[in-house]
Write a structure and sequence with these properties.
Layout lengths: L3 H11 L9 E6 L10 E4 L9 H17 L3 E2 L8 E19 L35 E20 L4 E11 L4 H15 L15
Parallel strand pairs: 2-3, 2-4
Antiparallel strand pairs: 1-6, 4-5, 5-6
């Protein structure tokens, strides 16, 4: 009977994953733009609060690294750049509901496995004791997550038209270092489609 807690711990370890927010990345672009002729870019002013200065720097550095790897050179805004770059960011809360399953085999506190705090900001109450065999859910608990969204906009400065836009979102963590790494990962995923795949044959035209 003492082997049962291991069974429940292993089972519960997989169950909360269905409620964890997975990162999302979407990219769109102007199908008529000739990305092969773009050589330089400049950053325009982005609206950023004082408290976000460190995060703003990380976002700009991550985007600079991707554009530099694509062969683009950053210049001053008054140097007649081919492209201008801006970004928008924000945070909103997402609420999902997790079932508390009825214990068909009775209350068993010695089998309990409590999911405590520390999964990141905004998480709701943990899992209560007394898990038994699966049954129909008799209650639902809210799981609240802070979701950060980043949008990068690239404009053709000569045509004054938006030619590329990437949007990424993911759950924020309490640890700033983890959030910084996640920014780099999301920006890298965005720029896998810069230049857009179909535009590669036009690079020299």
């Amino acid at each position: 009977m003492r082997s049962r807690p291991r069974f429940w711990i292993a089972l519960l370890a997989f169950f909360p994953c269905s409620s964890v927010y997975a990162d999302k990345v979407n990219v769109d672009w102007d199908r008529q733009a000739n990305f092969g002729r773009y050589r330089t870019y400049a950053w325009l002013d982005c609206q950023t609060s004082t408290s976000d200065q460190l995060m703003a720097r990380r976002i700009i550095e991550a985007v600079d690294g991707q554009l530099r790897a694509k062969g683009l050179q950053r210049v001053a805004p008054d140097a007649d750049p081919d492209l201008s770059v801006t970004y928008d960011s924000g945070v909103q809360q997402k609420v999902s509901w997790a079932p508390l399953l009825s214990p068909a085999w009775g209350f068993a506190p010695d089998w309990a496995w409590n999911w405590g705090p520390g999964w990141g900001p905004g998480w709701g109450p943990g899992w209560g004791p007394g898990w038994g065999w699966w049954g129909d859910p008799y209650a639902y608990y809210p799981i609240v997550q802070d979701i950060g969204t980043l949008a990068v906009n690239i404009v053709d400065e000569h045509q004054k038209q938006l030619v590329w836009r990437g949007v990424a979102s993911d759950a924020l963590k309490d640890n700033p270092e983890k959030n910084a790494r996640k920014i780099c990962e999301l920006v890298a995923k965005m720029f896998k489609k810069y230049p857009p795949p179909f535009a590669s044959y036009r690079k020299q035209t």
